[in-house]
Amino acid sequence: NKALKAFTNSKSPEDFIKLKKLRSKTRHLVKIAKTTYWHNFTSNMGTEVNPHLMWNKIRSLQGRRNHNNIHLTLNSSLITDPPTVAQKLGEYFEENSSNKHYNEDFLTNHEHSQKPSASLISHTDTHQPQLNAPITMGELFFALKKCKSKSAGPDNIPYLFIQNFSCNTYQILLNIYNFIWTKNVFPQSWRNSIVIPINKPGKNKFSPEGYRPISLLNTLCKLLEKIVNLRLIWFLEKINYFTPEQCGFRKNKSSYNCLTKINDAIHNSFATNSYLGMISLDVLKAYDTTWKPSIITNLNTVLSYSHMIKFICNFLETRTFQVRVGSTLSKSFSQINGVPQGSTISVTLFLVAINNITKNIEYPVQSTLYADDFNIFCSSKSLATIEAHLQLTVDKLTNWSKHSGFSFSPEKSHCIIFSRKRNHNPISINIGDKLLNNSKTIKILGITFDKKCSWSKHITLLKNAITPRLNIIKILSHSTWGSKT
Prior knowledge:
By secondary structure, the protein is α+β, with helices and mostly antiparallel strands.
């Protein structure tokens, strides 16, 4: 600045040369400082560095910033106050689990099922004694080994704290669990969960509809849930309760089972010069609208009225939640229907609730089911035949939804015709009085299928997704500087 002022006042060649030299020196020093900072920044990234700090640096290289603040736009006004945002999100999540999503006929027909009748299964039937036996120390340790999360729940107790209990403390904890299990009681504080709003990918972050509620439960409750859930899964798999099409969250099954079944069906239709029509059906607010009495009714057909069924009833009964935005907690809201997302046993209970959906599928229509991701497809040389079979199946499923409490979203459900032929007419499938969209591509369990099954669309999307990540790897893997690993 002094050199610039001197030149401005004097306008002499000597002062101008001095100014140019100082500017050149300054640019050189800034360049060296930037290079040094960059080398230090990248060299401090490695396995010995805190993963949280390292990923923060990687996100900064991607141009992504962590915005913990949630802002909503309601009635053309921006809401930034955390207590108000938490309140609005809580009201929206409570509404999602309310009875308004069920039609009046369903509520009238199922009014008596609010208190389902007792099971007719005997306590001494096969596997019932093992299922309802007191919890053992081995089960406690086995479930605890599966607890990997380092974060604490609303009770401020992390799993790491429980994993360092003394032998006497473990015995006390086991006695508490067995008291809850055998006396059929449930702590009131365990019925409340803290809901963290997570923005859905590609959804409007200024609207409550763009957020998914993820429940944080008390750690001690989740540990007991894991123990009970392991027993329940063991029993249901032992008696082959689940439909063979269900591949979600089951041992020795995965999304690959669904994807390979679809891929094989497509190529078999190509081999016979046929069409394959598929409908991807979206279950609207699947977890939030799960009808709780139907879970108990379904389990009553295989469980005796003992500790297991009573624990599940207690777990589902009179649940509440609070929404956390930043450090602000909303007031308590009621979760009238549905199962809490984030709970271990909720997934199994949801699979029980949706299990009989595949009973509506009859040959030549086939289906894949991964939790609530449901697809039906049919192959034929005639599009009219495909359309007739798929429409009949959709009508059966629509009728099933009227009795199960679930409903399908016509806006989010899609049709696609797989064929090597260049030109063909679309099919017309209706859910109720709404026509489903015909698409050229369809995304199933993270894989994008195109109508010719050429994978070009999926590869393009995959390339666009990984290119920025590859660029980051390149700039971090210099031979003389960069990450140490």
